[in-house]
Amino acid sequence: MGDVVHNFPVVSDLSVRFPTAEIDWVVEEAFAPLVRLHAMVREAIPVTVRRWRRSLFAPATWREIAALRRKLQARFYDAVIDTQGLLKSALLVACAPGRKYGLDWRSSREPIGWFYHRTFAIPWDRHAVERNRALAALALGYEVSGPANYAIRVPPAAVEALRGCVPAHLAQWLTRPYAVLLHSSAGSQKLWSEDSWAQLGAALHARGLSSLLPFGSSTEQNRSERLADRIAGALVPPRLPLDRLAALLAGAQLVVGVDTGLAHLSAALGRPTVGIYCATDPRATGVYAAAHAANVGDGRSPPSVEQVLAAADRLLRT
User: Fold this and answer.
1) How many CB atoms lie within 10 A of CB 92?
2) Is 261 in contact with 8 (CB distance < 8 Å)?
3) Residue 289 confidence class, pLDDT cut points 50, 70, 90
4) How far is CA 180 from the centre of its chain?
5) Can you say whether residue 297 is alpha, beta or left, with left for phi > 0 and alpha for psi between -120 and 50 degrees?
6) Interval 68-83: pLDDT, tens
7) Coil, strand or helix: which one is 66?
8) What is the mean pLDDT of residues 93-121?
9) What angle do CA 14, 268, 148 make, to 5 degrees?
10) 274 DSSP β-pair partners
11) Is the C or the N end of the chain the one with fewer CB within 10 Å?
């Protein structure tokens, strides 16, 4: 999900430089609702690479891949840009007709330069958002200018759908100031301790913010429920699809999260967002949204509750 969010500014840049451009985005099916939040994306073309890899020799898999190839071959693109730099994304690029651009062997995560007509060197010490913006600019011959503009909006229908899919008491609760605590990640090394989350939630409650603890799996649900038992006024919503999670984030007064795609999405939606970095380097993949985002931790050791709370207080004051 983070890779998806980090490419929204690319679409915004292209829309400014080429106002009549028609932009299609090939994306993992689960993340297609996010891509549709950007008004300048003509079509989110879903793929299921994760599922295909699990059943590579199944006839249904090859029928789906053939259907994708036919769909892409029915169009001709002036440019096909691979910002992900992985073998799986390069194979998808190969299905689309048009001149292909990607990262060179020093800049990509995997050595796949032969898939492209032209490659570019982009230093690894730049944030992922700026690497993506630079690649598109080099490919199409323009200069990157101005801050990153995510330009995504949650449609009113998604907000109404959110209110319609949660219990009545929670729908009423959403009309009051709340913080979303994104405590979960697929990488266990990225997690912040439950004691720290409980202390943070208590401090936010004292500041008039109730805590909402969403989840995406049974393990995460158990953690959310344990934390809700320890944080006054906290609630655990039902499991939500991505478009409704986006609506939930868009209504928050504050979002605090570990290194997870939802934290990047919150920052892209313009919400005050604190990223907690326990095991990854925020200089490369931290939440990246100017004045309303802050990263705490250096990726080598967990930050303290006091550090996270200080960052939250700064954002709440702006």
Assistant:
1) 23
2) no
3) confident
4) 15
5) left
6) 999 999 999 999 999 9
7) helix
8) 93
9) 40
10) 256, 294
11) C
- Distance set, CA 191 to CA 72, 153, 296 (Å): 39, 29, 13
> Mean pLDDT across the stretch 95-105?
95
| pLDDT at residue 306 tops 90 | yes
- Give the full edge-to-edge strand order of the sheet including 118-120: 77-81, 98-103, 118-120
Instruction: Copy the structure tokens of residue 302.
Output: 């967990």
The alpha helices in the chain, defined as continuous H runs, are: 2-5, 8-17, 32-35, 49-54, 59-73, 87-95, 128-140, 156-165, 168-173, 194-206, 218-230, 242-250, 261-268, 282-285, 305-317
Longest dimension (CA), the chain: 58
How confident is residue 141, by pLDDT bands cut at 50, 70 and 90? very high
Nearest to 110 by CA among 90, 132, 126: 90
CA–CA distance, 189 with 200 (Å, rounded to integer): 19
Structure tokens at 115: 């898939």
**191's tokens:** 């997690």
Judged against a pLDDT cut of 90, whether residue 56 lies above it is answered with no
3-state secondary structure of 61: helix
User: What residues contact 151, with CB distance under 8 A and at least 6 apart?
Assistant: 8, 9, 11, 12, 15, 38, 39, 40
**Which three-class secondary structure state does DSSP give residue 17?**
helix
